[in-house]
Amino acid sequence: MSDESTTDTDAAGPVLEVSGLKGGYGAIQVLHGLDFHVNDGEIVVILGANGAGKTTTLRAISGMIETSGSVTFRGESIQGSKAPDIVRKGVAHVPQGRGTLNELSVEDNLRVGAFIRKDKEVDADMNRWFDVYPVLRERRDQRAGSLSGGEQQMLAVSRALMSRPDLLLLDEPSLGLAPLIVKDLFERFAEINKETGMTMLVVEQNAQLALGIAARGYVIESGEIAFYGPSDELLGDDKIRKSYLGV
Ligand code: ATP
Question: What was the pLDDT predicted at 99?
Fold first, then answer.
């Protein structure tokens, strides 16, 4: 099942439309023609086993690897565009391993996140995300590299939010974090989505948690979409649950 139409989408329509997406690393092809979409204001999760191609999918969208096929963001093709141009168009990517600048302070990381902005509301936004993650306010002068794993993840997310993205790509935000911190992190994603309407595409191994906040999910297997559907349908299907979701 890799063919997918957007006719069943909600009234808001797709922000991101991916069709026939192929990509990989040099001679190694990882993605074998993916079709999926993310509607405006939606949280969508990409699930799948280790090595299925989830991270590669996010890299393909944000212009970090060579691709073919079609990637459309708000009706405009971004396939083949360079990563900084894709950020400027409103796509922010929180990579696996977080990608914070370890030698810089928390505050400077956030300012780097706002590098594409010319408006005067950067400080106001920083305070807004400090309200969401108060520990970052307490540690605003601390070197990012000395933060705990959970704090670094909060910083990585806040840094991406500082670019005021229309679409936030989150790559395995739960990786290496304690269950309670992960639960809290996901609750914050759901809150931010609800309050700002920000569209989110989340790659995650923790299927139960991710489907808990997502409207829909896609399961990738060997670089192809094996199943997709509303979160409750994926969780409610015994075969999919046991074979693909590990729950
Ligand atoms: P995980 O859940 O383990 O992070 P994933 O679904 O995100 O897995 P990817 O990281 O997208 O999987 O990797 C898909 C395939 O591409 C794997 O077989 C991996 O070994 C390969 N791969 C990833 N990065 C590179 C790279 N830089 N060069 C060559 N092959 C790579």
Answer: 78
Residues of the chain with pLDDT under 50: 1-3, 5-10
Q: Which atom of ligand 1 is nearest to the CA of 205?
A: 2
Ligand 1, from 34, 46, 56: best to mutate by most atoms within 8 Å of Cβ? 56
Q: Is 173 close to ligand 1, i.e. is its CB under 6 Å away? A: no
Is the whole-model pTM more than 0.85? yes
Burial of 169 (0-12, 13-18, 19+ CB in 10 A): buried
CB within 8 Å of 69: residues ≥ 6 apart:
18, 19, 20, 21, 22, 23, 33, 34, 79
* Plot region of 183 (φ>0 → left; ψ -120 to 50 → alpha; else → beta): alpha
Q: What is 1-90+167-247's CATH superfamily?
A: P-loop containing nucleotide triphosphate hydrolases (3.40.50.300)
> Residues spanned by CATH 3.40.50.300 within the chain?
1-90+167-247
- Of how many residues is the chain composed? 247
Residue 8: predicted pLDDT: 45
Token duo for residue 9: 């989408």
163 lines ligand 1 (CB under 6 A): no
Pick from 51, 135, 137, 143: nearest CA to 96: 51
Q: Locate tokens 């906040």: which residue?
A: 213
